[in-house]
Amino acid sequence: MSRQFSIRVPCTSSNIGPGFDVVGLSLSLYLTLRVTVTPGGAPHPRLAYTGTGAAEAPLDAYKNLTTRCALYVLRANGISAFPAGVEIDVHNEVPFGRGLGSSGAAVIAGILLGNELGQLKLSTSRLLDHALMIERHPDNVTAALVGGFVGSYLLDLPAEAAAKKDVPLSEVLPEYPPDAGETWGPHPPAPPEGIGHYIRFGWAKEIKVIAIIPEFEVSTAKARDALPDTYSKADLIFNLQRLAVLTTALARSPPDAGLIFQAMQDRVHQPYRKHLIPGLPRILASVTPSTHAGLLGICLSGAGPTILALATDDERRIADTIVEEFKKDGIKCAAEFLHVTQDGAQVSEGHLP
Ligand SMILES: Nc1ncnc2c1ncn2[C@@H]1O[C@H](COP(=O)(O)OP(=O)(O)OP(=O)(O)O)[C@@H](O)[C@H]1O
Ligand SMILES: N[C@@H](CCO)C(=O)O
User: Which residues form the GHMP kinase C-terminal domain (predicted)?
Assistant: First the structure.
């Protein structure tokens, strides 16, 4: 008899200004997988995509990020291959390469898929360990997995465990020629235990989220390569001071715009990414609580190019101003009015409508 289940993962915005690689926020755009497993069916998974990125996402299960992550979970837990008869219909709302955690959502969907296909019953902490072997900064994947406004860190592991965690990504997600079958070679390493740790912060119910999404992509890898290896003591202290205030300020009702706006300033990543996003400093300076009542703060979402604005009121006018600013550089944008999801990734029996 066939089994049907669904996996739904929210998109995420990370950093929120000063919290580079530390804080993430799950938001109301989703990656959804509807999965059917029919024993005795085709040997390789069938994938179909609808929605955003449908033309770009590989339909070969050995090339697609989500199914490759699922295969990693299976093989790291002693199961050599996908079960027969797997059919996956993906519907995606998360634009690729825009700073809204599309790769984090794809990774979490894959980790949950592997857990279900292998009936492994991994704990949340073990699911996160597997995700961190692939996406090696914790902010997006943790928020996508557990939901809400989340702070996370990576444990400083003992040398032997650290060596296991730091294996090249090509060993975690190797190329698997589908017809090679049992000649795939050794199974990839299982993650060490307890790589990632997190805490969920509060989120004031009045705070709404506006995402202004430019039509061009910025690869996260390229945006990370733009960052320096070392920072001055002054810049480090600047960000630490703000992040400490921000995590509590965003939970307080009513939100304090003056405090939040200043607490969302950053000197660690945004200044170094401005050449990748035309007009970034001008855009961040053009919308403030004094020019736009109702605004709380504005920042680059993840590695960009999306701009995230937090507001209590007047979201349409805030969005219009940012869209107009991008237009001065010839860039078209979409505006999304989102909310913070309290739930993270969900697995449910049956197919979601
Ligand atoms: N649903 C998906 N299915 C398959 N591959 C995906 C999916 N979503 C994202 N990807 C892969 O991830 C890439 C984008 O990842 P990247 O880390 O560059 O940006 P992002 O995750 O959207 O942004 P950020 O990390 O700044 O939040 C895509 O080009 C694609 O290769
Ligand atoms: N913290 C990450 C998020 C993007 O994945 C970055 O800004 O590079």
Answer: 256-325
ipTM of the complex: 0.98
| DSSP-derived 3-state class of residue 175 | coil
**Which of 102, 215, 277, 299 maximizes ligand 1 atoms within 8 Å of its Cβ, making it the mutation to test the pocket?**
102
Residue 138, token pair as written in the block:
């914790």
Question: Two tokens at 27?
Answer: 């938001």
CA of 85 to the centre of ligand 2 (A): 36
Q: Rounded to the nearest whole angstrom, what is the distance from the C-alpha of residue 89 to the centroid of ligand 2?
A: 28
Count the neighbouring beta carbons within 10 Å of the beta carbon of residue 36: 16
- pLDDT tops 70 at residue 95: yes
**Looking up tokens 């405090």, which residue turns up?**
259
> Could you say which ligand is closest to the alpha carbon of residue 21?
2
Instruction: Give the integer Cα–Cα distance in Å for 24 and 151.
Output: 7
User: What architecture is the 3-198+341-349 domain classified under in CATH?
Assistant: 2-Layer Sandwich (3.30)
Domain 202-338 has CATH 3.40.50.720: no
25 vs 147: CA distance, rounded Å: 7
Closest-CA residue to 135 (of 71, 200, 221, 198): 221
Of the ligands numbered here, which is closest to the C-alpha atom of 137?
2
Query: 253 CA to middle of ligand 1, Å?
Result: 34
Q: In the numeric block, which tokens belong to residue 267?
A: 């000197």
Distance CA 66, CA 31 (A): 11
Number of CB atoms found within 10 A of residue 63's CB: 14
Residue with structure tokens 């403030």?
Answer: 288
Residues paired with residue 19 on neighbouring β-strands, in sequence order: 15
Tens digits of residue pLDDT in 214-263: 999 999 999 999 999 999 999 999 999 999 999 999 999 999 999 999 99
